């Protein structure tokens, strides 16, 4: 007999369709868990309980023939994502009371699909760091070990999913912000191809680096949410790749990418940093599973090397220059102020030249691996990082450099625009998760998702849970219990 939160997102929707559960019951169950564990793992900035209950009642009233694969399922929205009528702080005390008048496109799509948001998840301030430890909410902690960070900038989303507070969540990824927390928390974090998911209706586009995307416990759940998020919107600056037959969920369920050539490398791309043996072992395990599935795995050079870091650095400084009311600048964290100060020193000409040179270097790197269908590498240079470790010295420059050395892989694929996913293939001797990064060709999300699903099946499944998972429960919420169903 399973608790409702034991079910995957797709299984929860099946339970609703069969009449075993209602959306209202699922929402109440998960809100109970949020109330008990939300602050412990630092998952939420704002919980919207009454709004969620109303949405669940509306979801239950929708005729069965009008329901999609995730209808009525609880979820959450990252606090960087505009949500009309709901406090959205961007992870910053400078916006502690900001309430947007409009929804981001992805928020609107999720509501139209019948998903029920329980609130806004913790993020790093303005999305500037790979850990989520700000002033507007408790720090996002790893449910597998509360002394460790859940990562960032989608750290609260990862903490919420890994602790069983929601089965799947929306996040965004501008330099690894979905894949880093997924690796740390034992989840599937998916960065779609550039243009596949709308970043509208407002925003600069940030040179095409960030994109909205899903995070969940299984590839199928993540693919189902991608189907919801990836809808064409007029006016978007990048051409969206076409979906496969049956959508992204169909690709995950088929789990048949054909025979592929997979290029493996482990050399860090943005830092000259030793890679932890557990991260290397996870890559080896993934390579062995891919080989056993019939794919050709070959060693390739890393597409780029640490010499390119100064170009990335300039772009990151400028991206920190989000509009902030002048009178609220003092409310920003030291790291954010440091990045913005550096960004303010960069001229338009320097930025333009940097973007051009960076694209040229990335083009050369992509050509070095052009014979490969997929690339396999570590997600991070180390399996975990203690809470507070990045900023412990009090020097923002050292903080930023520690982040670079901890995550020297993910950001490259934000520049290329390629689809990239972190998969929880490995585990440390202490039982903590270790992710690997699988990256596809631009626009070839279907093959990447199919391969990820194939790897999940050959691994025996990744829906593992930390000890905190059993800390709260409510057996038999509808009096008859809930059994696991095939997604």
Automatic annotation (TrEMBL):
InterPro entries to which the protein is assigned, alphabetical: Amidase, Amidase_CS, Amidase_dom, AS_sf
Similarity field: Belongs to the amidase family.
Signal peptide boundaries: none
Protein name, entry field: Amidase
Pfam families per UniProt: Amidase
Entry's Gene Ontology molecular function annotations: catalytic activity
Species annotation: Micromonospora echinofusca
Domain named Amidase: residues: 25-448
């Amino acid at each position: 007999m399973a608790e409702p939160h034991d079910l995957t997102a797709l299984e929860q929707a099946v339970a609703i369709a069969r009449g075993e559960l209602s959306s209202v019951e699922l929402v109440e169950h998960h809100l109970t868990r949020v109330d008990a564990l939300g602050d412990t793992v630092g998952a939420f900035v704002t919980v919207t309980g009454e709004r969620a209950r109303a949405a669940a009642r509306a979801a239950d009233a929708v005729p069965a023939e009008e329901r999609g694969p995730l209808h009525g399922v609880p979820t959450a929205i990252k606090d960087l994502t505009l949500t009309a009528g709901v406090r959205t702080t961007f992870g910053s005390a400078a916006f502690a009371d900001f309430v947007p008048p409009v929804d981001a496109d992805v928020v609107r799509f999720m509501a139209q699909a019948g998903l029920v948001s329980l609130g806004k998840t913790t993020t790093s301030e303005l999305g500037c760091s790979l850990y989520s430890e700000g002033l507007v909410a408790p720090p996002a902690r790893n449910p597998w070990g509360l002394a460790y960070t859940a990562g960032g900038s989608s750290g609260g989303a990862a903490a919420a999913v890994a602790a069983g507070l929601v089965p799947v969540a929306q996040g965004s990824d501008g330099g690894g912000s979905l894949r880093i927390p997924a690796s740390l928390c034992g989840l599937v974090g998916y960065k779609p191809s550039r243009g596949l998911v709308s970043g509208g209706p407002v925003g600069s586009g940030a040179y095409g680096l960030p994109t909205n995307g899903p995070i969940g416990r299984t590839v199928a759940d993540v693919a189902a949410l991608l189907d919801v998020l990836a809808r064409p919107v007029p006016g978007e600056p990048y051409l969206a790749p076409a979906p496969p037959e049956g959508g992204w969920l169909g690709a995950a369920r088929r789990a048949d990418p054909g025979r592929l050539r997979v290029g493996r490398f482990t050399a860090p791309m943005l830092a000259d940093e030793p890679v932890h043996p557990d991260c290397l072992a996870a890559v080896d395990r993934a390579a062995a599973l891919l080989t056993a599935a019939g794919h050709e795995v070959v060693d390739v050079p890393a597409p780029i090397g640490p010499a390119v870091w100064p170009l990335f650095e300039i772009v990151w400084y400028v991206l920190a220059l989000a509009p902030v009311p002048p009178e609220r600048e003092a409310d920003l964290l030291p790291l954010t102020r440091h990045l913005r100060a550096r960004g303010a020193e960069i001229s338009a000409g320097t930025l333009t030249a940097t973007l051009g040179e960076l694209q040229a270097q990335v083009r050369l790197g992509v050509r070095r691996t052009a014979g490969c269908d997929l690339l396999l590498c570590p997600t991070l240079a180390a399996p975990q990082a203690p809470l507070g470790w990045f900023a412990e010295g009090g020097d923002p420059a050292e903080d930023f450099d520690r982040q670079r050395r901890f995550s020297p892989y993910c950001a490259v694929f934000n520049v290329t625009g390629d689809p990239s996913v972190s998969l929880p293939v490995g585990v440390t001797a202490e039982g903590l998760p270790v992710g690997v990064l699988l990256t596809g060709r631009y626009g070839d999300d279907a093959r990447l998702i199919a391969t990820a699903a194939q790897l999940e099946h050959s691994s025996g499944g990744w829906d593992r849970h930390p000890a905190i998972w059993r800390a709260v429960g409510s057996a038999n919420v509808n009096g008859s219990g809930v059994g696991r169903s095939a997604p």
